[in-house]
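Residues pack. Consider this:
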Amino acid sequence: MLTATHLHAMIVHFPIALLLAGFLSDLLYLTTKKPFFKTAGLYLLVLALGAVAAYLTGNAAGDGMDDGSSLGKAIEVHEDAALLTMVLSVVAAAFRIMIDVTSFKPKWGYAASVVLFAIVIASIARTGFYGGELVYKHGAGVELEISLTPEPEN
């Protein structure tokens, strides 16, 4: 059965990979000055707005958890980190679109965009750390199948 937990696990890795690839593209542009890397960075950042879907599926997956338990508290920390990452991603994409597509092109614009992108990367790493703790420390989303009847012997 496909649940919000499954959807979150399936979706969340795409914006992470796209953001990392986009940031690396921007760094390559800074070192090579090849326009391809600047354009790729913009497109990958815009595609990474799938972080909104990752946030929404994660939020649905965490619904119904007991807020008083250690798992509930860990989910809340991860959710807060994910919300910050999503907001930062949207702001970074909007700013980047503004300086790449419109006539607003201050000299500091691209450098500010790369710094903002770096902050998004730090935020997504923090969010991923808390997500990893949910699974590997608290067992969130892990379903164990334990049979109480003995296996038949051959």
Q: What stands out?
A: The chain has a mean pLDDT of 90. Residues 4-136 form one domain.
